[in-house]
Amino acid sequence: MGLLTEGSPLSWEETKKLSDHVRKHGVIQFINLYKRLRDRQGDILKWGDEVEYMLIKFDDDSKTAKLSLRAVEILKILNEKENEDPKNVKSLWRPEYGAYMIEGTPGKPYGGLLAHFNVVEANMRYRRQEATKLLQPNEVLMSLTVFPRIGAPDFTDPPTHPTSNTGASKSLFFPDEAIYPGHPRFKTLTRNIRERRGEKVAINIPIYRDENVPLLFKEDLTSKGDDGSSSKASKDNHIYMDAMGFGMGCCCLQLTFQACNIQEARTLYDQLTPLCPIMLALTAASPFYRGYISDVDCRWSVISSSVDCRTQEERGLKPLKENKFRISKSRYDSIDSYLSKQGEKYNDVPLTYDDEIYKQLLDNDIDHLLAQHIAHLFIRDSVSLFSEKVHQDDLEDTDHFENIQSTNWQTMRFKPPPPNSSIGWRVEFRPCEVQITDFENAAIVCFTVLLTRVILSYKLNLLIPISKVDQNMVRAQKRDAVKVEKFWFRRDITSDVKSDDAQSEYTEFTINEIINGKDGIFPGLVPLVNSYLANMDVDADTHCTIQRYIKLIQKRASGELLTTAAWLRKEVLLHPEYKHDAVITQRINYDLLKKIHSIVSNDVLCPELLGQCISSKTTDTIPAAVAKAEKCSAASC
Ligand code: ADP
Ligand code: MG
Ligand code: MG
Ligand code: MG
Ligand code: MG
Q1: Which regions of the chain are under pLDDT 50?
Q2: Ligand 1 atom at minimal distance to the Cα of residue 413
Q3: Which of 12, 73, 133, 309 would bridge with 193, disulfide CB 3.0–4.6 Å?
Q4: pLDDT tens digits, residue range 129-174?
Q5: Which domains does the chain have, with CATH numbers?
Q6: Residues with CB under 6 A from ligand 1
Q7: Can you give the three-state secondary structure of 509-551, one letter per residue?
């Protein structure tokens, strides 16, 4: 979840008074950092994944599955190895928003060898086993995007109760005890976002229309302690949620790539942007909220609303008086502008940015595109500030910059090198939902990394106007988007022919056409990846692993296999206890999670989700001979 500064959090009133201070010094810190690092060259491809997990506690007598609030205890032990010998660990573990969540990454980033694709899954498996060893009987680690009964009555172990009058969330449904208690950042963000907004966050997701859902679906919120504000904020026929935990309490899969220099990082940032909605639709895994079946398949709009700190003025509901800007999106949303020269002409959405900051950046020799990107990030206030960090050395520190940067939770993140490190310019790919098995997560990770290689080596151009990417984000979240939606995509991605008619540069394709190709019209991303691989020397095991991953992606795209969301829906709809009322009871939830656990443990096959062949040849380490052979062949070409 980005920067974790130790210390004492300031109140919202104090933080608000220091907003200009944080912005002013954050910008200076960025300028200093940029001057030092703009010409940094020669970094090699490195990359790594982040997987978020939930702790689930089963009770086989009462047939319940709850979120187990033991992340602090588990993390303490998981971090011991790293504390003793940080350079020689196979995994790194970090806290996340939920008191039931942990985040794991590989101990070191992977590099440019194709053989690295063969260790990703083994490392994910290692992480799962490592954390699982620390669990109690009947406690299970799951890579689940959303817990189906999150915020429904009695969803935590031990039991907790929401406090609608006090605390960080003031939620009718989500208790503060479910927020990670081991670091003050999470509760502070929750409180400050709510206080900045001037009211609780409001998330309304359409309910799935099944035959026994009342024609007017409207909940009684008064009995839950509502003072009237929730009834006003909730929409008819929607699942209403009122806390940051509903979004930030979801798990996801992220990827970070290091580029050889800032230019390449800007290119990757742009080229991966049109892929965000495509990969979101392909990885869709979150159809349930608060114990109900919803009519969407992804968490994106939930998490976006769950941290929407914009005031009524900023949202355009009142004339501007206290605030400076109308702001069209939450601080958690898809990106608003491209960063490369090639992307410039596709920046068709008016960008809100701070003029003074923009000018200051230009005055310091930062170009228009990067300046407007930073000035856009800096329209936001700090929503978490620690007293120890208020005064900083702007030549050395970057905390104020990171403060704003790390709370702009967008589909892509442009990551400058940290001060005094060997790390280069990086970009982070953030849209994907996490899948239940390591096999699927490794497939998504390896496919995305391969795409970056193909984009850079073949100089592909995937750019379409930002407004079209925004439209695709909306479509990607719809129920069964992979099967029923079309997505704006560039017609010709292999040659950079300029067309006079911008309209004809892009068209609408299905996900199947984008991934697998359309005869004579569009080559398809997988065929391009395969032609790239055909020109590479790759050892037999790695080749086999990559092909299994690619098959999974192809079959998900074609609809031959179900998306995680589609499979989850089907399981609930077919459950004997399901009453066609869109309700996920404790028992349905228990049976579903048990089944997921048995699939992940390989006790039960699930060919409709995973296909027939799920065992890859993944290994813990790259055999020395393979590494050597690959290095030689890379050197000779
Ligand atoms: P954040 O939560 O801020 O996105 P994390 O530290 O949790 O960042 O995850 C960063 C990811 O980047 C990890 O997968 C890690 O392996 C990877 N990584 C670390 N160093 C580099 C590097 N130099 N280049 C690319 N990726 C890196
Ligand atoms: Mg995370
Ligand atoms: Mg992280
Ligand atoms: Mg998260
Ligand atoms: Mg991340």
Answers
A1: 1-2, 636-637
A2: 4
A3: 309
A4: 999 999 999 999 999 999 999 999 999 999 999 999 999 999 999 9
A5: 7-637 (3.30.590.50)
A6: 2, 46-50, 94, 105-106, 109, 254, 256-258, 423, 426, 428
A7: ECHHHHHHCECCCECCHHHHHHHHHHCCCCCHHHHHHHHHHHH
